[in-house]
């Protein structure tokens, strides 16, 4: 399965593009870590989807990697990260600045608020180019026009002079993508890039990201809460709950053979487009806050299978081909029975 | 119609935008000539993308804004020009649930006061004690505890806040509730809880629901009938199962084909929509969808299509000149592929559903 997963991208032995071996992070004086032992890797040409609900830490983990968290508020308690095989130091702000926007780029959910309303979109793209490359203004402007053309904006020569408010949401997201890709990044982190868009526009943007990825061979981390988007675009999936990755593996394994009760609950909660229209099975309760975080398994307060042992840190169980889940009782059908 | 609770005929709402001393304001045609009937006890869903006029329509049905033209009746009473007392009475029978549970609750009021406030208007005869008891009942009905009444909205999560909004809407004992994107701000697991809650309340209290949403999967689970809107007009309406199984309007087809399904390896050819929705300030002539329709023909540029019966199911109508021909071409792509879940995974899903329903489980003795 791993072989099909990485087919025609890169051989299995190659070093991952980004290898997050351990990332733990706390806010303020709180002893409980907001992110606890987060671990994932992405290879060139590959798309990793980090899926989870609001507050699960999926955005915070990528902001930490981009060096966009304030060190006086967010305390990195553990970080072992490699980028292209080299150590990637989250405390080295100068190095992070060199990476940011150059070989690691990010696009955000809100194309309305992440563009500067006071500058023409072309100038904003050119600024990203000039921040990392020694080029003339004219060259940077040419690059801006070319990038707008590549992301499918009609009449780029004219639109390069427009302001963000003159564009629709879909167009603005295209501008964001153009800006992120202006320096040919090796890794693109996309945080809910289509959440604010309508479905017909969403499918255009997903197609665009896929096409650009095939052209450039960049690795992509897509952060989303939408399992439909995940099924459409992911090679690998990491399911995140309350700051930990509870299950990870190839997309096929996550969708067809999910192991963690949270993954199963999340998939059961999704209204479906086909099949019987029956009452939805839910995940009861709400996500714990940092103050109410339980010991051991963080999902135990909402898990219908929770037992006393769940107060202890769950083991990482492996199901082959890089598919792992953090649960005392996985696989549920073998370790549990009806009482 | 004997069982119609709310009917709307040729509802139109225009807004004036821009304009100054020297320039004439432009007309934004938010809703144009929409006719709808809501049957007692059903859930009608109005679906469309941003800017299609669905929220304006919902606010008009609720009489939060008055229509520019057209008629509306609620239980036979004419309501499109209702004012004063008549409007207050209408508000008792018809309530609204807002999209954003974060901004629709006054942060300075306790939950008890928020939920009790509609009672002050609609049941002024209640004593303070009775009102508090009623508030406790309402909170219990939406799955909150009576003691939650003493807390403030910021102490609650998004899902709980939406429950407070629902309790507030139920306070006056309405017959009809209109929800504008009632679950779209919520996370998937919490969204399912609120969808189930609304279904339970509808059945228990005999409510009629009108739900505005952009998420077709949510709508499929919540509604009995669907009306699809595009650029201020209803382009297709009909029973939910038929809309999803045999859509006839090209826009409905495109919308359905654009939704990524949460199943690995499942793909369907998309009906590509080029470009974006035109501005309602200057909508295209003829069929408003013709600028993006992959099947558009010459006639679509001039003639405005009317809603016509499709003959598939009673009440299934589409506003397209050529839907018979398009359907005959087999235009709607069917999803293909996907091996589906393993048997072991199916067993785990069953175990999970049973556990949520109350079945106890215990660790199995390991060999």
TrEMBL record, chain A:
SUPFAM superfamilies in UniProt: P-loop containing nucleoside triphosphate hydrolases
Entry keywords, A to Z: ATP-binding, Cell membrane, Membrane, Nucleotide-binding, Transport
CDD domains hit by this protein: ABC_NikE_OppD_transporters (cd03257)
GO cellular component, one term: plasma membrane
The keyword ATP-binding belongs to this UniProt entry's keyword annotation: yes
PROSITE patterns, per the entry: ABC_TRANSPORTER_1, ABC_TRANSPORTER_2
Segments forming domain ABC transporter: 20-267
Location (main, coarse): membrane
Cell location: Cell inner membrane
GO molecular function: ATP binding; ATP hydrolysis activity
Membrane topology: Peripheral membrane protein
Domain of life the protein comes from: Bacteria
Family (UniProt): Belongs to the ABC transporter superfamily.
Protein name, UniProt field: Oligopeptide transport ATP-binding protein OppD
Gene: oppD_4
TrEMBL record, chain B:
Keyword match Methyltransferase: no
Phylogenetic classification of the source organism: Bacteria, Pseudomonadati, Pseudomonadota, Alphaproteobacteria, Rhodobacterales
Cellular component terms (Gene Ontology): plasma membrane
GO molecular function terms attached to this record: ATP binding; ATP hydrolysis activity
Protein name: Oligopeptide transport ATP-binding protein OppF
UniProt keyword annotations, A-Z: ATP-binding, Nucleotide-binding, Transport
Protein family (similarity comment): Belongs to the ABC transporter superfamily.
PROSITE patterns tied to this protein: ABC_TRANSPORTER_1, ABC_TRANSPORTER_2
Subcellular localization, as worded in the UniProt entry: Cell inner membrane
Principal place of residence: membrane
GO biological process, one term: peptide transport
Top-rank taxon, per record: Bacteria
Domain ABC transporter: from-to ranges: 6-256
InterPro entries for this protein: AAA+_ATPase (IPR003593), ABC_transp_ATP-bind (IPR050319), ABC_transporter-like_ATP-bd (IPR003439), ABC_transporter-like_CS (IPR017871), Oligopep_ABC_C (IPR013563), P-loop_NTPase (IPR027417)
Protein's gene: oppF_6
């Amino acid at each position: 399965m791993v072989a099909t997963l990485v087919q025609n991208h890169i051989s299995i032995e190659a070093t991952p593009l980004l290898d997050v071996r351990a990332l733990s992070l706390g806010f303020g004086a709180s002893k409980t870590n907001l992110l606890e032992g987060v671990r994932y890797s992405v290879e060139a040409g590959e798309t990793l989807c980090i899926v989870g609900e609001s507050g699960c830490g999926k955005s915070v983990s990528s902001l930490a990697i981009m060096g966009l968290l304030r060190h006086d508020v967010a305390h990195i308690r553990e970080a072992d990260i490699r980028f292209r095989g080299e150590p990637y130091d989250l405390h080295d702000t100068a190095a992070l600045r060199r990476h940011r926007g150059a070989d690691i780029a990010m696009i955000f959910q809100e194309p309305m608020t992440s563009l500067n309303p006071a500058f023409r979109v072309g100038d904003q793209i050119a600024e990203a180019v000039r921040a990392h490359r020694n080029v003339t203004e004219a060259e940077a402007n040419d690059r801006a026009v070319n990038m707008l053309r590549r992301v499918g904006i009609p009449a780029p020569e004219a639109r390069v002079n427009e302001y963000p408010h003159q564009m629709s949401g879909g167009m603005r997201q295209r501008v964001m993508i153009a800006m992120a890709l202006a320096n040919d990044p090796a890794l693109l982190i996309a945080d809910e890039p289509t959440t604010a868009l309508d479905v017909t526009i969403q499918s255009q943007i997903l197609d665009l990201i896929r096409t650009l990825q095939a052209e450039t061979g960049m690795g992509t981390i897509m952060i989303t809460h939408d399992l439909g988007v995940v099924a459409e675009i992911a090679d690998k999936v990491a399911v995140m709950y309350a700051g930990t990755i509870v299950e990870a593996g190839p997309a096929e394994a996550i969708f067809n053979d999910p192991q963690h009760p949270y993954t199963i609950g999340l998939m059961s909660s999704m209204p479906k487009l086909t099949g019987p229209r029956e009452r939805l099975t839910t995940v009861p309760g709400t996500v714990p806050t940092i103050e109410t975080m339980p010991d051991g398994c963080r999902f135990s307060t909402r898990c219908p299978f929770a037992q006393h042992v769940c107060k202890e840190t769950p083991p990482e169980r492996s199901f082959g081909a890089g598919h792992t889940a953090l649960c005392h009782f996985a696989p549920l059908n073998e370790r549990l029975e009806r009482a | 119609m004997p069982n119609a609770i709310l009917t709307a005929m040729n509802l139109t709402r225009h807004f004036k935008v821009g304009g100054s001393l020297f320039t004439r304001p432009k007309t934004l045609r938010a809703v144009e000539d929409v006719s709808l009937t809501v049957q007692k006890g059903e859930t009608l869903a109005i679906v469309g993308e941003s800017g299609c006029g669905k929220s304006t329509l919902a606010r008009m049905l609720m009489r939060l804004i008055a229509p520019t033209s057209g008629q509306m009746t609620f239980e036979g009473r004419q309501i499109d020009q209702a004012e004063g007392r008549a409007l207050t009475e209408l508000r008792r029978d018809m309530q609204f649930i807002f999209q954003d549970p974060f901004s629709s609750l006054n942060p300075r009021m306790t939950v008890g006061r928020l939920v009790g406030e509609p009672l002050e208007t609609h049941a002024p005869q209640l004593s303070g004690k009775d009102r508090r008891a009623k508030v406790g009942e309402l909170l219990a009905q939406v799955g909150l505890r009576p003691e939650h009444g003493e807390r403030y909205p910021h102490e609650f999560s998004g899902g709980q806040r939406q429950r407070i909004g629902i309790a507030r809407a139920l306070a006056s004992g309405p017959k009809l509730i209109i929800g504008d994107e009632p679950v779209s701000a919520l996370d998937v697991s919490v969204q399912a809880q609120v969808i189930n809650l609304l279904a339970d309340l509808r059945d228990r209290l005999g409510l009629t629901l009108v739900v505005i949403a952009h998420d077709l999967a949510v709508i499929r689970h919540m509604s009995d009938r669907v009306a699809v809107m595009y650029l201020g007009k209803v382009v297709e309406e009909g029973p939910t199962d038929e809309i999803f199984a045999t859509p006839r309007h090209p826009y409905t087809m495109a919308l359905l084909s654009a939704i990524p399904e949460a199943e690995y390896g499942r793909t369907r050819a998309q009906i590509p929509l080029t470009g974006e929705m035109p501005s309602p300030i200057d909508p295209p002539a003829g069929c408003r969808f013709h600028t993006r329709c992959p099947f558009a023909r010459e006639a679509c540029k001039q003639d405005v299509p009317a809603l016509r019966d499709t003959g598939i199911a009673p009440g299934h109508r589409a506003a397209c000149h050529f839907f018979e021909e398009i359907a005959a071409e087999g235009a709607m792509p069917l999803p293909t592929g996907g091996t589906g879940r393993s048997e072991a995974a199916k067993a785990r899903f069953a175990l999970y559903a049973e556990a949520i329903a109350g079945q106890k489980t215990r660790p199995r003795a390991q060999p």
